[in-house]
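Example record used in the benchmark description.
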Amino acid sequence: MKKNIILILSTGILIISSCRYEPNKSLTQEKGTEPNMIPVTIHPNKDTSSEQQAKQKHQTFAVKNIENQQIVNVKITNKQADIIAKIKAQDPQAKIEFAPFDTQALLFDTTFQGVDAPLELKLKTTSMNDSTVVQEMLLLDVRTTGKKSYLLSHNYQTEVQLRKAGQLIAQHLIKKEFFKDYIQAEFLEKAILKHPEQVELNPVTNTVQLHFLIGVPATDWMVMATLGIKPTGELQILKVEYLGL
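Model output (structure tokens):
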């Protein structure tokens, strides 16, 4: 029996070349407010509850505003402070920038003809805007041998809903930490997981399969991870395959 396969994004170039969210134009985009283009300003995650925001601890960090080159104080989380401290410990002269917020959402839905009933799949991928993924770059300067620059980029999460004959049987929130027991910690810390590259129905097991490309930006260090949603609604990791270094 032929599998039902839907390709969401035909190439993995976007995920490994940039932390900016560039969804396929054929998919629906849900727009929020325009991104803050001053990458030194940190705000709480827009999806975080007020209770969680109240518990979130912040520190103040002096950085240079890229637009006007003025020194400004930025509130950052303790996790971001730890990341910056580690960078500065290795290179006190390092330049640190924050990626602009990504306020778009990528929406996708499709229906598979299951073994005994239709299966309706809905996906929503959004940026966590957490500025905790470190990207190392190199800025060449004619007066020196080079100066390291670091960009703090964002992680992404995908909300998954699966309905059978109209009844909700599965609801999951997928983040890269879901793969912590299957992928090297060093890789996972530097990598970004975005939306599934491909979705399909296995007609033998009646399992909906989601294929995610997890990659370290600007490198060929990649992993293809396949998740399966069983007819019971259970989410499981089916396969993890290293594609790069």
